[in-house]
Structure formats: structure tokens, C-alpha cells
Amino acid sequence: MAQKSIRFGVIGCGLMGREFASSAARWLHLNDAPARPEIVAVCDTDTRLMDWFGEHVPSVTQKTADYRELLANRDVDAVYCAVPHVLHAEIYPQIIAAGKHFLGEKPFGMDLEQNRIIQTALDANPDALVRCSSEMPFFPGAQRVMELARSGEMGEILEVEASFLHSSDIDPNKVINWKRIETINGNYGCMGDLGMHVLHIPLRLGWRPDQVSASLVKRVSQRPNAQGDMVACNTWDNATITANVPHKGYEFPMVLKTWRISPGDSNSWSLRILGMKKSAFFSTKNPRQWQWMNYESGGDQVWQVQDLGYQSLFPAITGGIFEFGFADAIQQMWAAFLHELAGGNANGFHCATPQEASDHHAILTAALQAGLSRQTVRVDYAGATS
After folding, report:
1. In degrees rounded to 5, what are phi and psi of residue 50?
2. Which residues of 47-59 are buried (b: 16+ CB within 10 A; e: fewer)?
3. Residue 62 burial by CB count (10 A; 0-12/13-18/19+): exposed, middle or buried?
4. Residue 280 to residues 233, 253, 295, 330, Cα–Cα distance (Å)
5. Is the separation of the CB atoms in 209 and 331 below 8 Å?
6. Given this model, what pLDDT does residue 386 score?
7. DSSP letter string, 19-71
């Protein structure tokens, strides 16, 4: 059966835009995908970034610095938007209003108020398929941990810990970027950029905290700009959120870590779920392994480790003995989105939804308030939706 071609426009041609282009270029890596992406239009205010697409993506027929021109292009069926947080509330609603399906970068608005603007546009255009980027849960080990949690075999949950840790910002001489400027990144700081990653699976499992406390850390107050001048670095470096999760008549704690200064960690994502009967753990530090423990009354408590190899949600040509990596996770995320666009069910695990993005805003808003006030704050989910 011939693959359906879905023509994409890319708004924001930086790092993640190029990752999408790479995934699209090697779509033959996937077996039996019902649809494939074809990038036909790109938009960025930096013409050098668009030139890269012109050189490496021959299907591109439109390059423009005005995203409105891209949205007016009738050859564009769907859009990938990867722009700084401050632009989400301006661009995302216009993508939706233009009748384009789209996958957007997190956090879907710089703050709760901006997320409501996007939600209002979605309410007015319910036929648009809209998803939020979050690729880490597509690692095979993460899928195994989630499957075990879904099975109900873990017994009562003792604790959940989800983390996304970076280390590069420990260098005070690292040149500042937009993620370290509050007026562009937002008040959430590190939580805004990393929060969807740590909350994607918990929210998918229905684990919605009712109250949170938070420890917010700001260690580097100035950084050099591109010209070498020292400028204010005013976003939160690290956030540790402790949440209380009601679940099936009892409660359990959930710890969410979004750190940009985590000594020794390089883009390390992890998920640990401890249960009374079974427990499980996965970290991208060991991308081919997952760990679990089975416990019976009076029995030994022994963690087991399994090498998974390349066992992806969407089958690929890579042999199962080989290792799965970040570029594979991104392609698997895109495969899930394209599968839905072609009328499928994303093989049972779709990309993060606008509702999950809205819920994560409710949690981050409460966490910010909790961190500033040093009090426990209730999460207002009703206030996070239109």
C-alpha cells in the first residue's frame, strides 16, 4: 500500500526543526508507516537557518520570514512549530485558525494565561489534530515502565520520581540564550522547558497531583552575551517539585525534577515507579536497559536488569540487538503523530495532548507559587482550561 504524503511547513528552523528534517529524510527507516512527512515550506527570521533547509531538503519550495505567508500556503497540510515560548500564544492560535494540523514545542504558552489563549483557539477549531512535543517517553525502556504501571500489577504505589537533568549551565561563562531570559522563556524558568517531559507519562497514567510544594534554585545571576558583556540571567536554574497524587482511594508522593544545573548529567531523563508488588526504573543514561523488581510477601527483593535493544513502538529496519537513541526517539514521536494524521491510533501511545499540556501548566503554576511562598499550594485544573 502506498504511503500517504503529508506536506509540512516548519516554523522555527533551529535545532529541533533540523531534527525533524533529519527524521523525515530517513523515513524509510520505518517499516509499514501509513504516511510520510514531506517538508515543503520553512519559516524563520534567520535566513541562514532557512538556507540550511534549502541545501539539505530538496522538497522545500517556500522560504519565508513571515509565518503568515507559510500558513497561507495551500500546499501545507500540517505544521511543526519550534519557536521561543513567548511566541506560542501569538503563533499557535493562528496555525489552528488556518486549518492546519500541527505539532508544537512545549510548553504550549509561556504561562497559564497564554495557554488559555491557545486552548480557546482549539475549542473554536475542534477538527485540528494538535499535539505537544515530548520524545523521551518513546524510548523502549520508558515504554516498558509505563506498560508495567498500566497493568495494575505494581500494587499500591509508594512513590514516583520523574527527572530531566542537564549539566551545561553549571558553567557560569556559558553564553546566555533565550531560555535564560524571563521575558522570553517565562516565569517558570527551567520548569517551562522541561516540565512536559517529566509529566508526560504521569499524566498519561492519570496521576494528577492535587497539591504541590517546590524548591526553586537560582545560582547563576549573570551570563555573558554573544558580545561578551555580562547580562542578567534571571530564570530558575533548578526546580524540585514534590506533589501529592490521589489514586484509587489512597495517595502517593511524586517528585518531579527539572534541573539545568545537575553536575555530570547530559540530557538525562529518568522515570522510577516504586510499588508494593512491583517496581520499575529507566534512565536514558543506560538507554538500552530497564530495571524492575517483583516482590512477594516474605520473598527476596531483587532488582532485575534487561537489555532491550531496538524494540520500538513503531517497527523499524534496525535489528533488535542494536541500541536505540535520541534520534530514534524523535522519529518515533513523529511516527506517532503521522500515524494519527493518517487515521490511526499511534499504536496505543500518542504524543502529548493539548489537555495534558494544559494540566501541566496547572501543575507548574502551582509549583511556581509554592516555591515563591514556601507553602504547599493546591493545583487548580479548572483554571487551566478554557
Report:
1. -65, -35
2. eebbebbeeebeb
3. middle
4. 37, 16, 12, 23
5. no
6. 44
7. HHHHHHHTGGGBSS-SEEEEEEEEE-S-HHHHHHHHHH-TT--EEES-HHHHH
For residue 79, give the H/E element and its range: strand 78-81
Adjacent-strand bridge partners of 216 = 239
Q: How many helices (H) and strands (E) does the chain have?
A: 10, 17
CA distance 161 to 257: 8
Grid coordinates given for 330? 524523535
Label residue 138 by pLDDT band (50, 70, 90).
Answer: very high
- Tens digit of each residue's pLDDT (9 = 90 or more) over 69-97: 999 999 999 999 999 999 999 999 999 99
Angle at 249 between CA 247 and CA 255, to 5 degrees: 30
Buried b (16+ CB within 10 A) or exposed e, 322-336: eebeeebbbbbbbbb
- In three-state secondary structure terms, 85 is helix
3-class secondary structure for 210-249? CEEEEEEECCCCEEECCCCCEEECCCCCEEEEEEEEEECC
The residue among 10, 235, 201, 37 whose CA lies nearest residue 105 is 10
Beta bridge partners of 377: 212
Arithmetic mean of pLDDT, 280-300: 96
Longest dimension (CA), the chain: 67
Query: d(Cα 103, Cα 17) in Å, to the nearest integer?
Result: 11
Confidence of residue 105 (pLDDT cuts 50, 70, 90): very high
Is 118 in contact with 110 (CB distance < 8 Å)?
no
pLDDT in tens, 155-169: 999 999 999 999 999
User: Average per-residue pLDDT in the chain?
Assistant: 96
The secondary structure of 89-131 as a DSSP string is HHHHHHHHHTT-EEEE-TTSSSSHHHHHHHHHHHHH-TTS-EE
> By the 8 A CB rule, do 122 and 130 touch?
yes
The reported pTM is: 0.96
The residue behind cell 505537544 is: 132
Q: All domains of the chain, ordered by start, with CATH?
A: 4-132 (3.40.50.720), 136-324+348-373 (3.30.360.10)
Report how far Cα 345 is from the mean position of its chain's Cα atoms.
19
Report how far residue 67's alpha carbon sits from residue 92's, in angstroms, rounded to the nearest whole number. Answer: 11
